[in-house]
Amino acid sequence: MDVYLAGSPADVTTWSQTNFDRHYNGNRQPFGIYVHPTHLTNYAGLPDATALKSGVVSFIQSLASKPDVWFVTNDQLLQWMQNPVPASQLSSPSYMQCQKPVTPKEICNVLGTLNYYSSVVETSTNTYHALSARGSN
Q1: Which pTM was predicted?
Q2: Distance (Å, rounded) from C-alpha 51 to C-alpha 57?
Q3: What pLDDT, in 10s, does the model give residues 31-86?
């Protein structure tokens, strides 16, 4: 059963940021962001999700602004862990090719058109690849 995000958008942003910071400032293990459609869309019987959606998008955008934070799918992360390559080679593996998925309206209704962005960065100690999706609405 999915848990509805309880609390104000500020509360959700605060605990999300606290948990992210624990990963980012700790051992830098992957930080998963999993959002259910009921957190982003309005459904009868649930609170208006407009402010919460804005908070979630703002939180993701704040993470995306960091030069060494990357958004990848679970599959991409697992494949990279099995065969890590430096950032300079991340555009080569087939599993890192960014393709817009075909998502029927029944799954992603009212979320708008998604724009996908891919980036690669290499630092002196780490390599990163990002796939991020940003809604147009």
Answers
A1: 0.62
A2: 10
A3: 988 887 777 888 888 778 888 888 888 899 999 898 778 788 888 889 988 988 88
End-to-end, the C-alpha distance of the chain in Å comes to 28
Residue after which a domain boundary falls, among 66, 87, 111 = 66
H or E segment and range at residue 17: helix 9-24
Q: Give which of 59, 45, 46, 43 is closest to 9, Cα–Cα.
A: 59
Are 7 and 62 contained in the same domain? yes
Expressed as residue numbers, the domain containing 77 is 69-137
Give, as one character, the DSSP assignment of residue 11: H
Are 3 and 39 in a shared domain?
A: yes
Q: Are 69 and 17 in contact (CB under 8 A)?
A: no
Q: Give the H/E segment covering residue 51.
A: helix 50-64
Last residue of a domain, one of 66, 101, 118: 66
Give the residue from 39, 34, 62, 38 showing the smallest Cα distance to 52. Answer: 39
